[in-house]
Structures are given as C-alpha cells and as structure tokens.
C-alpha cells in the first residue's frame, strides 16, 4: 500500500484565502483591520524567519501586522510592560510572543501576562484551562491545524483510537485535549512511555510531536493509519519529520509530508485565531 500524501500547503493556502475574505468583511463592518502583534526577543535566526513570514501572511490576509523586535538582553519588566501596552491597544486583536525566549526571561510569567481575549497562540493558563475543561476559547495553532487536516481527511473522528507522541505545552497536551473533545480515545505518549510501538500499533491516528528525526518507525503503524507529522528537524541541510517517512508511507493510509504538511497550517490557524479574537472583541 502507498499512503495518500496530505497536502497541508494547499489546505493552508485555501484557509488563508478564506480568512482573508472574512477579514476584509470585518474591516468593512468594523471600520478597522483586525490586528496581530508579534513580539520577538533576541535574534535567533529561525525565530526571525518565522516572525517575518507571520507578518507577511498577516498583511496578505487583509489584517494589520505589528512587529516588536526587542534586544536579547530585554528584562522581564520591560517585556511585561510592552504586553500591558498591547493588551490595552484597541488596534491589536491578537498577541503572540515568539518562543523560545532568552534564558533569563520567565516564559510562563510572560505568556500569562497576555490578555486571554488576545491569546491567539492559546498558551495562557486561561486558554489552556478552557481547552482542558472543554469551554470554547482560543486554541494553539499547530494542534488546531493538525485537527483540521485530520477532520478533512477522515470526517467524524468519533471512536477512533489516537496516539499523540510528545507532551509539550505547545503541541502534545493541547492536541490530546482537542482529540478527546472530538471523541477519540486518546493515548498521550512521551519519553517515559514503555513499549511505544505497542501503543502506536493500536492507533487509527498517530500525531508525532517529539522533535526527533525519524523517531516513529513505519513498521510500528497499524495498516491504513492516518499519520500527522508535526516534527521539523534539520538534517544535513534539509528538513525531516519525526516519522520515518518512506517506511511509514508504505503502511499508512495517509501521511503529512515534511515540509508541506502541518507547518503551513500553523500560520493559517494563527490568522484564523486572530480573526476569531477580533470578532469576539468587536462583539
Ligand atoms: N515557536 C515555535 N512555534 C511557536 C508557536 O506556535 N508559537 C509561539 N509563540 N512560538 C513558537
């Protein structure tokens, strides 16, 4: 069997176009553009690339982009003061602080300083609590994008066995919560899981988010499983996922490629969340 390749790039382009149209309608109604503020501390080159592409995509989707680049030695109080200013700014509907932050900053305290109504990354304790409790709110972009791809591929996910590999705040934990809300039976596996292959073999849906190149092997998979590879690992100058692609593609029913799978969905969902926040704030 040869797996269907899930075209996240095309899906994301379509989603961005739909959000762009809805954002134009928002502007016509509200008399202002929906706005996204992105805060980057320091000069990590990979983060700078992400932030630039987020800004471009925001403008292309008929929204206003506010970029704040702060020096690497910015102190906690200055960063929190900027967030307070953005929280109070009516032109700003969404706030994203690019992670990771330089080591001297308290990431949890910084994220918690974002107004939950503007938390388009879904990372504040309020947003995470809402997701855990099943209350409607803003959801982290990468898991949301992964869920949209799964629902597009499989339709109703009710009753499916799903495994999420990795328990990060950014991906694994919210992904498990979203799949649970979608009525999957969810296993959340991590670095201490015993006999991972045994758990993967039972899963109709596999979401790999461990950050280790080729960690998940094709022979572990249940034939016909749908595989979402969230990993982006740099190997020999190229990008590879957390799933051993060739082995998995011969067993899975469908699989996301790296690049061109989940990656493009993250920015598309960020734009979607920004517009959602704008609508809620405008009432
Ligand atoms: N760094 C890598 N991915 C992300 C993300 O989705 N959100 C934020 N804030 N930082 C990131």
From TrEMBL:
InterPro entries: Aminoacid_DH-like_N_sf (IPR046346), NAD(P)-bd_dom_sf (IPR036291), THF_DH/CycHdrlase (IPR000672), THF_DH/CycHdrlase_cat_dom (IPR020630), THF_DH/CycHdrlase_CS (IPR020867), THF_DH/CycHdrlase_NAD-bd_dom (IPR020631). Its EC number is 1.5.1.5, 3.5.4.9. CDD domains: NAD_bind_m-THF_DH_Cyclohyd (cd01080). NADP(+) binds at residues 166-168, 232. It comes from the Bacteria. Catalyzes the oxidation of 5,10-methylenetetrahydrofolate to 5,10-methenyltetrahydrofolate and then the hydrolysis of 5,10-methenyltetrahydrofolate to 10-formyltetrahydrofolate. Belongs to the tetrahydrofolate dehydrogenase/cyclohydrolase family. Homodimer. This is Bifunctional protein FolD. It comes from Sphingomonas plantiphila.
């Amino acid at each position: 069997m040869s797996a269907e390749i899930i075209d996240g790039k095309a899906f994301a382009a379509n989603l961005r176009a739909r959000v762009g149209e809805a954002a134009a309608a928002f502007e016509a109604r509200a008399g202002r553009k929906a706005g996204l503020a992105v805060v980057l501390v320091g000069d990590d080159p990979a983060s700078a690339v992400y932030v630039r592409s987020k800004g471009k995509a925001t403008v292309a989707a008929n929204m206003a982009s506010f970029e704040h680049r702060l020096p690497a030695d910015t102190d906690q109080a200055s960063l929190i003061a900027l967030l307070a200013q953005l929280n109070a700014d009516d032109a700003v509907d969404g706030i994203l602080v690019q992670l990771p932050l330089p080591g001297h900053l308290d990431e949890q305290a910084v994220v918690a300083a974002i107004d939950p109504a503007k938390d388009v990354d879904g990372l504040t304790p309020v947003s995470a609590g809402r997701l855990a409790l099943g209350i409607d709110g803003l959801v982290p972009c990468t898991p949301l994008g992964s869920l949209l791809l799964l629902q597009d591929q499989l339709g109703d996910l009710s009753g499916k066995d799903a495994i999420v590999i990795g328990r990060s705040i950014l991906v694994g934990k919210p992904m498990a919560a979203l799949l649970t809300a979608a009525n999957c039976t969810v296993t959340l596996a991590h670095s201490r899981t015993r006999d991972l292959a045994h758990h993967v073999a039972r899963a109709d849906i596999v979401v790999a988010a461990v950050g280790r190149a080729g960690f998940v092997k094709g022979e572990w998979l249940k034939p016909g499983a749908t595989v979402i590879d969230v990993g982006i690992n740099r190997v020999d100058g190229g990008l590879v996922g957390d799933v051993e692609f060739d082995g998995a593609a011969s067993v899975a029913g469908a699989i996301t490629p790296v690049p061109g799978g989940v990656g493009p969905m993250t920015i598309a969902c960020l734009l979607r969340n920004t517009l959602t926040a704008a609508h809620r704030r405008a009432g």
